Amino acid sequence: KVQTLSDITKMKYEKEMVQLCGLLEKERNYDRDCVHVDMDAFYAAVEMRDFPQLRNIPMAVGGYSMLSTSNYVARQFGVRAGMPGFIASRLCPQLEIVPLNFDKYTKESRVLSSILSQYDPNLSMGSLDEAYIDLTQYAAIRSSSVRHKRIRYGGDCVCRLPLVKDNDHPGVVQSIEREEVCTKCSHSRKIIEDEVEFGIGRAEIVREMRFRVEQATGLTCSAGIAPNFMLAKVCSDQKKPNDQFELENDPQAVNDFIKELPTRKVSGIGRVAEAHLSALGITKCGDIITLAHLLPCAFSSLGVESMLRIGLGLGSNMHSRDSKDSSRKSISLERTFSPTSDSRFLTQMLYEFCEQLIEQASSKIKSASGLSLKVKLSNFETLTRT
DNA sequence: GCGGATCAC
DNA sequence: TATGGTGATCCGC
User: Fold this and answer.
1) What domain of life is recorded for the organism (predicted)?
2) Could you report the per-residue pLDDT of A334-370, keeping only the tens digit for each?
3) How far is the CA of A73 from the C1' of B6 (A)?
4) Less Cβ crowding at N or C end of chain A, within 10 Å?
5) Can you tell me the distance from the alpha carbon of A354 to that of A360, in angstroms, rounded to the nearest whole number?
6) What is the distance between the alpha carbons of residues A232 and A245, in angstroms, rounded to a whole number?
């Protein structure tokens, strides 16, 4: 009798997987309001805000070796984050490549986190342009609606993006219009001042957060709302750009959502894990549970557990997003160069790396504690000879 | 404990 | 012309 791999692993692992799922199920929790906020095409959006001539042309931020991000016009040409600039230029010859301006992005990031931290003082920034917010407390306390003033721009002025879509009207309480001449581009522009109202409930609160971010920075963001951060992160991608997606804290809703979700959408499943899963016939997160007995063929026990968590729509529990320790554990330095066996060059480069790392480490220690770090680099030639 | 692989951004 | 840099975790040795 011929037995397939699936038959064998089913006998061997099915019981164990069912048991493991049962254990993990006990962690399920629908009491939290988790939000992931993600700025839209962040670096590109900052440059487009500051340089209006970039707004309607394909552009990307980075260099000829690598692009950090591209605007939505460039994406229509297939220009994507992480792509080498010279390849992007072939895809889109008109592409404008703007160098990185990290100081600016860091400033915007601080504006973002200062607004969002009013909703969760323990928020965690995933990077300059994304934040994980636990809204549970704030949403439970908020019992009345909140009003804000909204500024929109119309007319020919190109110095501000028409950030607020005309059909994107939260409760407008009152609206005042006036005309003026823009001092920058000397075009006439219409300024519309609205009084807008945001209700209670987590989706309205997230609308308000996004509204405030946009008014403060001139940049839009997208958000995902879900019972845990793993799901919230996926949700923030669902309605990008400039919108939000709420996954109800409800078993049926979560199950339906996870069932059809491609595995690669989940943070933590990269190209390799996707390929491993795909080899097992697992392409959607729902498959992870139906074919759970195959997982031990390709993953370690921790890997299996992490996959089951994803398949069940549970949070990551231990590390990363749900309880993040923000303290740095290492500093490092790397550089790419063309292949060489010039050992003097390599030694010299290593030496400079060490000097720079010592400098970095001591300056960080100094600013954190006031103490001075002294390191002596000795016998370097011998140390690095091999 | 260490280097390699993997992942995110 | 030209395919990055930083930090983290996990695994096998």
Assistant:
1) Eukaryota
2) 999 888 888 888 888 888 999 999 999 899 888 888 9
3) 32
4) N
5) 10
6) 9
Strand positions, DSSP E, A63-164: 67-70, 96-98, 124-127, 130-134, 146-155
Q: How far is the CA of A278 from the C1' of C4 (A)?
A: 28
pLDDT number for residue A286: 98
What is the C-alpha separation between A101 and A61, in angstroms, rounded? 9
Longest dimension (CA), chain A: 85
Give residue for tokens 């949070």: A315
- Say which residue the tokens 């929109």 belong to: A152
A130 catalytically annotated? yes
Helices A102-116 and A42-50: crossing angle in degrees, nearest 10, is: 110
| Token output for A19 | 């048991």
Main-chain dihedrals φ then ψ at residue A76, nearest 5 degrees: -65, -20
Q: Which residues lie below 8 Å from residue A141, measured CB to CB, with a gap of 6+?
A: none
Global pTM value: 0.93
A269 touches strand B (CB under 7 A): yes
Judged by C1' against the alpha carbon of A129, the nearest nucleotide is B9
Predicted pLDDT of residue A160:
63
Which residues of chain A register pLDDT less than 70?
1, 158, 160-170, 317-325, 379, 381-386
Helix A202-217 × helix A102-116 angle, to 10°? 140
In terms of Cα–Cα distance, which of A47, A225, A232, A208 is closest to A115? A208
Residue A15 CB-half CA count within 13 A: 3
Q: Residue A262's beta-bridge partner residues?
A: A284
The set of residues, in sequence order, having a beta carbon less than 8 Å from that of A143 and lying 6+ positions away, is: A200
- Residue A144 in tokens: 């009345």
Torsions phi, psi for A37 (to 5 deg): -110, 130
Which helix (H) or strand (E) covers residue A186, if one does?
none
Instruction: Give the closest residue to C6 (Cα–C1′).
Output: A332
d(CA A114, CA A66): 30
User: How many Å apart are A269 CA and B1 C1'?
Assistant: 27
Using the structure block, give the residue that is written with the tokens 């003026």: A180
